[in-house]
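Extended Data, panel c. Modelled sequence:
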Amino acid sequence: MALLTPAPQTNPASFHKTSVIFRRKLRQSLVAQMAALFCIWIAGEMISRGLGLPIPGSVVGMMFLLMALISGAVQPASIRRGARWFIAELLLFFVPAVLAVLDHPEFLGIDGLKIMAVILSGVVCVMVTTALSVDLGFRLMAKLNSDTK
């Protein structure tokens, strides 16, 4: 008889209030923002591996995040502090790679110099691309701010 009872009706105003509270808490909590970004990364990994895509899961997750930001489903303020923390602590994510090189003395010869040249050129490329992207972003933000005034 319990199967025949109707499902409780949800109040749209109550859902909206809960949504507003959730977004406010997310904007206030660095840990929650980091967890949200981590969940986006994990979801991208699961999709990439599940579909057998040749694209890394982190890239898939960031594409979903970009789509959510463009569509307005996620506001930049909801993830800004978490993203800034990850960028500020980015060096910590490369420490294990450096320690792995120290475990292999063969990398301290000519092979190591070749690998170091590739690493340094890659770092320079990433830094230049990042600098140009940030500069472009600031120019676009300045243009948008001047257009709205």
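The chain is about 75% helix and 0% strand. This feature is highlighted in the accompanying rendering.
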